[in-house]
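User: I'm writing a short report section on ligand binding and want a predicted complex to refer to. Could you take this sequence and acetoacetyl-coenzyme A and write out the structure as tokens? A short remark afterwards would be nice.
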Amino acid sequence: MIKVEREAATVLVTIDRPEAMNALDVATLTELRDRLRELAADESARAVILTGAGEKAFVAGADIKYMSGLDVEQAKEWGALGHEAGRLLETMPKPTIAAINGFALGGGCELALACDIRYAATSAKLGQPEVNLGIIPGWGGTQRLARVCGLGVAKELIFTGRIVGADEALRIGLVNAVQDPVLDKAREVATLLASKSPIALRLMKELANRALGGDHAENLAAEGETFGEIFSSEDAKEGMTAFVEKREPRFSGR
Ligand code: CAA
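Assistant: Sure. The structure tokens for the complex follow:
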């Protein structure tokens, strides 16, 4: 099951399937996709944290018992469902943070990679072990791992299926920080982000998501255009006025 808990403008989404180390079956992944869709459209949700229930696992991957019975068409649908969830984390107009407690393997690592920011507990173990099952990463791992860690690191990890601990994950840039309890760190940053202008965050996310693809000159031009447009927002006026008046800004999201 998927738990959604709100604390002011931040939302904690917890994947809770303890009998399978939070591995995702169709029901759980569909529920996750549906909750993420709702949160993407919900303006009162300003930052979203994704985590796994319990101490042992963030998500131990796609459910292998379920996958072992799939034919080609069913496997394509299963891949598409995971991609939908990843795409929502990557593109929803607000920051998404993965709080990785324990195993984040296969599809679990891929969901974390789709988030904007990743924090890990010292117990975290991350990797793409699909090759050991005779398959490939299917929810974005062949693309997003390279975007986050560079192509050389990504190829080694997906080809070998090697699992890395928190320290190595930090060193290779797979996670942004390592801290126990990881949820405290994620909550602290989510609360900070929820206090900033949601318009600025949405636009920065959109632009940053273009950084590693498309045409560089066009992307820079889009930044220039957007930089100009944001000056029509109340938040821009408030932010700059507050600086001049030597006070804290209060962003309204308009
Ligand atoms: N799918 C289904 N069940 C899983 C699972 C998974 N991905 N991961 C763990 N479980 C289940 C185990 O089968 C076990 O259930 P039973 O007691 O009913 O057999 C229970 O969770 C506890 O797991 P273990 O007894 O194996 O616990 P452990 O501490 O010895 O090992 C582990 C933990 C290293 C995470 C190990 O369970 C493991 O290797 N899991 C599979 C990891 C994996 O390969 N993930 C990638 C899946 S493929 C994928 O995700 C494709 C994609 O890109 C979309």
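A remark for your report: Residues 20-21, 23, 60-65, 82, 103, 105-107, 110, 129-130, 133, 137-139, 141 surround acetoacetyl-coenzyme A (CB under 6 Å). The CA atoms of residues 33 and 85 lie 5 Å apart.
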